[in-house]
Specification:
The complex is a heterodimer.
Chain A (H helix, E strand, L loop, with lengths): L6 E3 L7 E6 L6 E6 L3 H19 L4 E7 L4 H15 L8 H5 L1
Parallel strand pairs in A: 3-4
Antiparallel strand pairs in A: 1-2, 2-4
Helix pairs in contact in A: 1-2
Chain B lengths: L11 E2 L2 E2 L32 E2 L2 H8 L6 E3 L10 H11 L5 E3 L12 H6 L3 E6 L5 H7 L7 E3 L4 H7 L7 E6 L1 E2 L5 E2 L14 H6 L2 E6 L19 E4 L6 H4 L10 H16 L7 E4 L4 H17 L3 E8 L1 H8 L3 E9 L2 H9 L3 E3 L2 H5 L13 E4 L3 E3 L4 E2 L15 H7 L2 E5 L3 E2 L2 E2 L1 E2 L14 E4 L2 E4 L6 H10 L4 E2 L1 H12 L7 E10 L5 E8 L3
Helix pairs in contact in B: 8-9
The chains are: A alpha+beta, B alpha/beta.
Chain lengths: 100, 519
């Protein structure tokens, strides 16, 4: 998946995260996180982001999180949605079924 | 050294000598006479008590650098007295004060932090230091540690001589020129002046500040002229919208409603839920919803309460008007409806905070309380409660009467969700220990109810809950569930410096808060 444009997913509600993705001309993944619980969960949050990017096959992107206490599954889902939008691709909803 | 709850404490913090919590109400105050700074005065020397400005009053009291000043927090976030007085104090060049209000609410423009930075205030003692000041203190603002005491401990600290007040500044929404004053009437009515009584009785000098000077004698009277040295009229003592907005509405959050409903059901299942029982609920969203559900359960069972206690909301006044509560004893009034209710209803009464919660006197009303509802930021698997510090080590709230209610009520019930945002609220070990777990009977969450096996009424509660078909779970299960949702957080990093000392009801140290390490 290749990020073609800036796109976002999520909200600024409590327990949600607003994810904005954009192309990274320098290459690689550049993840920035703004969160009230960063000191407590930074490693887990970064892993949720990089896992979702790996899952989507995205190698080059800037991913910015404006977090308000989202748990990992929410972070993964919002990152995935933002990446799909940035890549102008639809999420393959049958993917999990095929894996199973 | 470690206290009885396993908290590591230094022996001395600055000039503060630590007496570790032992769980047995260790305080030799009981063997001594009450200490007071109050002086007999042969009538006001100048014949008048009414002075034109705050500066005049401060000069008249003889306030000097190094002394102790006090305030009440009955005007809550709407308070405009504290900053006016501190500004006047600063203008007079008085410094190095011990600032000892009943609590610090989030006062802005100017913030208390500025008065610490410029040296006007060098020591703080209160029940809580919410907002900007609290966060600055945890970031190492002060040389001396802030001393935090629950509401019940402050009167004892004052009367035992630990906290001698030189000048008490008492805001009142109505006062006459001779100092008879109250919070019950006037455009800025705040209701009960509960916290101010002990200050009025024991400070060396008492200044009443009002924006509503009434004809002598003021009626009703909360604090009598016999305790008051000076009266000052200012333009504004508060912002009525912030003193107590209208009646708090019932929350729509389904999770909070579920917790509230379960709490009311648990109370209704207790054998103590009978004609003439007593309760205290509080002002949080869950507490207010619990009050409303409790009123329904009482109607269903056809019983009335003898009294409700503590901070009072409009929901309690509704219950009183329906004849469901005989006496509403207000140590504080949380909203505009409750504030006006004291003057308007015979059974709604103002009580001294010491009568409400001080264990070191000949009995406080908490001794007679059946059910007490408590809020909390965190509860651990030993049922210890944190009501001060948030997940990232920020100062979120004050001790209030939490530790007093937990210990005073027969059945103390902590109501909270298992997680808030990404923050677990049921944890293996609370960051700041404010209320010992042994005084907590029950924790009610959306994921289940846990009884404390170490509480004195455990067997009774277990029997009652089982008889009512209420499913119980273990606190460890709630903790496991919380952490499975949020993940295990990294511990908050702190420095060696103690920023705040938490005293228990008896004045022993239950915990300390270290300065938080920020990136």
């Amino acid at each position: 998946m290749e990020i073609k444009k800036t796109a976002s997913a999520g909200t600024l509600e409590s327990s949600d995260v607003m994810v904005t993705v954009s192309p990274n001309p320098e290459g690689g993944l550049k993840v920035s996180i703004d969160s009230p619980v960063l000191a407590l969960y930074e490693e887990q949050m970064r892993k949720a982001v990089t896992d979702a990017a790996a899952d989507a096959g995205v190698k080059d992107a800037e991913i910015a999180l404006n977090d308000h206490g989202a748990i990992d599954c929410v972070i993964r889902a919002r990152v995935m949605a933002a990446l799909c939008r940035g890549a102008e691709e639809a999420y393959d909803w049958a993917k999990e079924d095929k894996e199973a | 050294m470690k206290n009885a709850l396993g908290r590591e404490l230094p022996e001395k913090i600055g000039s503060y000598k630590v007496r570790p919590y032992s769980g047995t109400y260790e305080n030799d105050a009981v063997n001594r006479c009450v200490v007071s700074n109050r002086k007999p005065t042969l009538r006001p020397a100048s014949g008048t008590k009414l002075l034109p400005t705050l500066e005049d009053a401060i000069k008249a009291t003889g306030l000097k650098s190094g002394m102790t000043i006090s305030f009440h927090h009955c005007f809550r976030e709407g308070d405009k007295i504290i900053s006016q007085v501190l500004t006047a104090v600063r203008n007079l060049g008085i410094k190095d004060l011990r600032f000892a209000p009943s609590a610090v609410v989030n006062i802005k423009n100017p913030s208390i932090v500025e008065f610490v930075k410029d040296g006007t205030i060098t020591r703080i003692e209160a029940s809580g230091i919410r907002g900007e000041l609290g966060d600055a203190v945890l970031d190492g603002l002060m040389e001396e540690p802030v001393i935090l005491r629950p509401h019940g401990a402050r009167p004892r600290a004052i009367e035992s001589g630990d906290l001698m007040i030189d000048v008490a500044f008492i805001g009142a929404s109505a006062s006459d020129d001779y100092g008879n004053c109250t919070g019950q009437i006037g455009p800025n009515a705040c209701g009960s002046l509960g916290y101010a009584f002990v200050d009025a009785y024991n400070a060396a000098q008492v200044v009443v500040i009002t924006d509503n000077l009434v004809e002598y004698p003021c009626n009703p009277v909360s604090i009598s002229q016999q305790y008051v040295d000076y009266v000052v009229k200012v333009d504004e003592i508060g912002d009525p919208a912030k003193i107590g907005a209208g009646a708090a509405r019932m929350t729509k959050n389904p999770r909070d409603l579920m917790i509230a409903k379960r709490t009311a059901d648990a109370i209704a299942a207790s054998r103590r839920f009978v004609e003439g029982f007593s309760f205290q609920t509080g002002a949080g969203a869950i507490a207010i919803a619990t009050t409303i559900y409790l009123s329904e359960r009482m109607e269903e069972k056809g019983i009335k309460a003898s009294f409700s206690l503590g901070g009072t909301t409009s929901n309690i006044i509704d219950m009183y008007k329906k004849g469901q509560v005989r006496v509403v004893a207000c140590s504080q009034s949380f909203d505009a409806v409750a504030a006006r209710a004291i003057a308007e209803n015979e059974g709604v009464i103002e009580i001294d905070n010491a009568v409400y919660s001080n264990p070191y006197q000949k009995g406080c009303m908490l001794d007679k309380l059946n059910f007490g509802i408590l809020g909390a930021l965190e509860v651990d698997t030993d049922f210890n409660i944190n009501i001060l510090t948030g997940s990232s080590g920020e100062m979120m709230a004050g001790l209030g009467g939490g530790p007093d209610v937990a210990d005073g009520a027969d059945i103390s019930i902590v109501t909270l969700p298992v997680v808030r945002g990404r923050t677990p609220s049921i944890v293996p070990r609370v960051f700041t220990l404010c209320t010992p777990g042994t005084s907590v009977a029950m924790v009610v969450t959306e994921a289940g109810i846990a009884l404390n096996p170490k509480h004195k009424y455990y067997e009774e509660l277990k029997e009652d809950m089982q008889a009512a078909g209420i499913k119980l779970t273990a606190i460890e299960e709630l903790c496991k569930l919380a952490l499975s949702i949020t993940g295990v957080p990294k511990p908050i990093e702190t420095t060696d410096k103690v920023a705040a000392v938490i005293e228990y009801r008896d004045g022993t140290v239950i915990d300390v808060i270290h300065q938080i390490k920020r990136k």
